[in-house]
Amino acid sequence: MAMKVAVNDIKNLSGPEKAAIVLLALGEEHTKIWEALDDEEIKEVSQAMAGLGTVSASVVEDLLVEFVSGMSSTGAIMGSYEQTQRLLASFMPADKVDALMEEIRGPAGRTMWDKLGNVNEAVLANYLKNEYPQTVAVVLSKVKSDHAARVLACLPEDFALECVTRMLRMEPVQREILDKIEMTLRTEFMSNLARTSKRDSHEMMAEIFNNFDRQTEARFIAALEERNREAAERIRALMFVFEDLSKLDPGGIQTLLRGTPKEQLALALKGASDKLRDMFFSNMSERAAKIMREDMDSMGPVRLKDVDAAQVGMVQVAKDLAAKGEIMLAGSGADDELIY
Asked: Residue 277's domain spans which residues?
C-alpha cells in the first residue's frame, strides 16, 4: 500500500476531512457527537478518516480553533483503518461496523465470500460436495445468487437438493459459526487453490505476449529466440492468437459472434486470412454476412494497429467466454482441447 502524504495545510482539506480530524482529536470519549450524525454522514466522515494518514499538529490546532474557539491542539494524530474501526465500534453494533468498514476498505479488503465469487464454479463445487449440506447452504447463501446457481448446477443432484432444502429452512447464522466456516475456507480451500492454480511462467508470458501488438510481439520473440530458443518455442506454442479462432466449433463461433460488437468484428476480419473470414461468414445468416462484407468494403484502408487491437479484443472475448464454460478453446500448440 502506498504511504499516505502528511497533511500540512488546512486549505487542502475537504469538509468531511476536517470533521474527521476534529473527531479523531476528541478521541473515543466523545461518541455522543457520532450518535448525532445520520448514517450517510457517518459513512462520509468515516471514509475521510480512514484515508487521512498523518495530520500535522499545526493543522489540528488550526482546525480546533476553527471549530471551537480557544481549544488548543493535542498534537499530531493518525487516521487509519484500525483507528476508524475502533471509534465506530464504541457506539455502533459490530455487524454494522464490519459492513461499513468493508465498504470503506474496498476491493483490497474484500471478504472471503467475495473471493469465492471469483472461484470457478466447478472447482468450488468439487470442494463443497465433501462438506456437510448445512455448511454448503451457509456458503451459497453468502455468495452472489448467480454464482450460487452455477455451483448448485455442478453438484450431484441429490446433494444439491439437500443443500437447497437447508437454505430454505435456514435461520440467521451465529457469528461464531460463520467465523469458523470462513476460517476453514481460508485455510483449507483458498490455500490449496493458490497452490494448485499457480501457473507455469511460460504460460504467464504467453498471456503477456498475446497482448502485444504484432510488431512488438515479433520483436520480442525474435530477441528471445537468440537467447533461449526453447523458451521462445514454448511461449509461441502456448499463445492463443486470432487465427486460432479457426479451431472453434460452429456453436463456439456463433457464441463469439453474439459477444462481439459489429464494428470490432468488421475491423478484425479486415485483417484475417480468407479461411478464417469465410468461416465466420458461413456461421452468419446470408443477410448478416452481406451487410458485414459491405461494412468492411466501406471502411477502405485501415491502420494495422487498429486491426491488431480489434483482433486482440476478440481473442479476449473468446477467453472470457471460455472461462465461463460457454465455448471451448484450443491453444495453437495443443493437441487436446482446453478450457481456459
From this structure: 240-324
